[in-house]
Specification:
binds manganese (III) ion; minor pseudopilin epsh fold; single chain
Length: about 250
């Protein structure tokens, strides 16, 4: 009987809400509802150059769509995945991607796809915006030592990129032992997931090249070298060897 009385009081209180007494609280409800997508902790990094800077290989419209919408979608998805997960939300991106398999099972696929996508694209923008050419200094020496020289690197990297079935990436990685290696990954998987660092990589999802090249991935893969920034890639190599390269 006491329960019924209490329930009656509660129903009465709800009823009052619609008559005006509780209107302030009722009016605030929509703002508190979990409908707005979280805007952090991860954010879209600025491109660092104009959309037409890579015109020699990638048209400005593709660059804009790819950066503003495709990459943003990975950031948005990652923020939604870590919402309410304080330990995950505090992790730096490289640690989150490296350790995604230890996360709660219900989150793993989203951390893998969105976290990997955020890391891969952040690297991708950084290494472009240049004028191609060839590496020099310690990076050139490492390429000569581990990959048989720059010409051989290009041949092997391009063959790897052409061998990606469907969507994925081709990478030059820095292994745990500090050696360079060429590898591919499906979807948005990252070399971080193998305990390696991505020195450089090419996105061979169709969204990266379809407007200009349609199905001709081989032309895109060949042209891509003309917009690489070897100063930045060299800086990434130095950071990887110093243990400070993140994504
Ligand atoms: Mn992409």
């Amino acid at each position: 009987m006491a329960f019924i009385q209490r329930r009656g009081l509660m129903l009465g209180a709800v009823g009052l809400g619609f008559t005006g007494l509780m209107r302030p609280a009722f009016a605030q409800a929509p703002a508190a509802a979990p409908t707005a997508a979280p805007t952090g902790p991860f954010t879209l990094p600025p491109l660092g150059y104009a959309f037409d800077k890579n015109e020699a290989a990638i048209d400005a419209r593709t660059m804009e769509l790819h950066h503003r919408f495709h990459h943003q979608a990975y950031v948005t998805g990652l923020n939604a995945a870590v919402a309410g997960q304080d330990a995950l939300a505090r992790m730096p991106l490289d640690e989150l991607v490296t350790n995604y398999a230890q996360a709660p099972e219900a989150l793993r696929t989203r951390l893998r796809n969105f976290g990997g996508g955020h890391a891969n694209h952040s690297m991708f923008w950084e290494i472009m915006g240049g004028a191609g050419g060839e590496p020099s200094g310690p990076l050139k020496a490492a390429i000569d030592r581990d990959l048989g020289g720059f010409g051989e690197l290009k041949n092997r990297f391009n063959a790897a990129a052409m061998g990606v079935f469907g969507s994925g990436w081709s990478f030059v990685t820095v292994t745990r032992e500090g050696r360079l290696a060429i590898t591919t990954k499906p979807n948005q998987d990252s070399p971080l997931m193998d305990g390696q660092r991505a020195l450089m990589g090419n996105d061979v999802w169709e969204h990266a090249y379809y407007l200009r090249y349609q199905n001709r991935r081989v032309e895109y893969v060949g042209k891509w070298w003309d917009v690489l920034d070897w100063a930045r890639i060299s800086a990434r190599f130095d950071a990887a060897m110093a243990g400070t390269l993140k994504v």
